[in-house]
Amino acid sequence: xxxxxxxxxxxxxxxxxxxxxxxxxxxxxxxxxxxxxxxxxxxxxxxxxxxxxxxxxxxxxxxxxxxxxxxxxxxxxxxxxxxxxxxxxxxxxxxxxxxxxxxxxxxxxxxxxxxxxxxxxxxxxxxxxxxxxxxxxxxxxxxxxxxxxxxxxxxxxxxxxxxxxxxxxxxxxxxxxxxxxxxxxxxxxxxxxxxxxxxxxxxxxxxxxxxxxxxxxxxxxxxxxxxxxxxxxxxxxxxxxxxxxxxxxxxxxxxxxxxxxxxxxxxxxxxxxxxxxxxxxxxxxxxxxxxxxxxxxxxxxxxxxxxxxxxxxxxxxxxxxxxxxxxxxxxxxxxxxxxxxxxxxxxxxxxxxxxxxxxxxxxxxxxxxxxxxxxxxxxxxxxxxxxxxxxxxxxxxxxxxxxxxxxxxxxxxxxxxxxxxxxxxxxxxxxxxxxxxxxxxxxxxxxxxxxxxxxxxxxxxxxxxxxxxxxxxxxxxxxxxxxxxx
Length: 486
Prior knowledge:
Layout: H1 15-27, H2 31-38, H3 45-51, H4 67-80, H5 84-93, H6 95-100, H7 112-124, H8 128-141, E1 150-158, H9 166-173, H10 178-181, H11 186-191, E2 197-203, E3 218-232, E4 238-245, H12 281-293, E5 299-315, E6 334-347, E7 353-358, H13 363-376, E8 382-387, H14 396-404, E9 408-412, H15 423-435, H16 443-459, H17 470-478
Parallel strand pairs: 5-8, 8-9
Antiparallel strand pairs: 1-3, 2-3, 3-4, 5-6, 6-7
Helix pairs in contact: 4-5, 4-7, 5-7, 12-17
């Protein structure tokens, strides 16, 4: 008889194999081992022993699991956002988790029910939050606070819908407890949920096909709670967690424990950056900044770019105006009535803008705009135009146009350095002052508003002033890691 594949068992691992595997984990940097070395969990034992009181030992039964062991497992469960059943399984399955809990391969592991009983007992004794706060303070004191960037998010958790009478609903809205609402029915009060709330989830409808009407977004009523968490981006651990009713606003929770005021942390805020890999970065910076700070005589310096795909958005409901003590408000959903592209040229010496709205942003439209600017610039002036590296600006037809207009000189910004193009500041101004809060029922109305803003801007235009020298910019970038300037 031939042996069945896989029926031959390998030799059983011994004690030293187990130790060798742990040493390998330590060599690769076991974060739980560092946590064990950082925090002494024995000082937690008195609080745990008081909260997790054992029953009468004279009644017999299995000896209870160690209180510190169960707290360590609750720490693992909280850090990784898992269920108690998953936590119990992974402590049995992973050597690093087993070592963190002080267990060996043959030791017993508390199951999900045991962990649930322990957690509920700590909550009832009002000790759970205090224990985790004390744990975090110990980690901070040792200098191991994971702060490599925070991710703050929230998810909805459904709760059973309640069937209450109008008077009971009114009492719930007043903040009364279940025992106060049903004082003569303790069993019913124990089963009633008076903390959950209704909210509405919005599901975005799929974009309609060309020429078809846009279907409305779907509003889904939801009853339950909202779980807010703050996660360390690098280590992936859940640093803080809050539970609120489903109708609670996410931003308000940031000041209620998701961030630590004592450390002035603001994990909900982030700044973006982009490094240019242009080999001629330094030369281009010196060229463009030189035009801003010391423009040539008998020449015009223009910053040219296009703001594409400006949407003509009409809100589904009228906005609410500013009132004393209240912000202005508008609906988050909208109806899109088409788009337009704004080509703009900022005259750096005097701050005026030449702008044209066009349906597309191809090289044909760009050449049309260049002809308009050509007519606006006085005869005999050399035109230094600062543009970015968009393919339209380097199209062969555009290069032919430049050859036919020898007074024009293009200066291209470095790759990934649109901040050098001064007209981007004008795009930011028009977005904040006219476009972002605007209501436009058609593309023509949007274009009229853009032209009106440009006219108002030119009526009170001021010269554009660049304050940072090329040397200062390059010196700051030389101190950044991984940046090579040539």
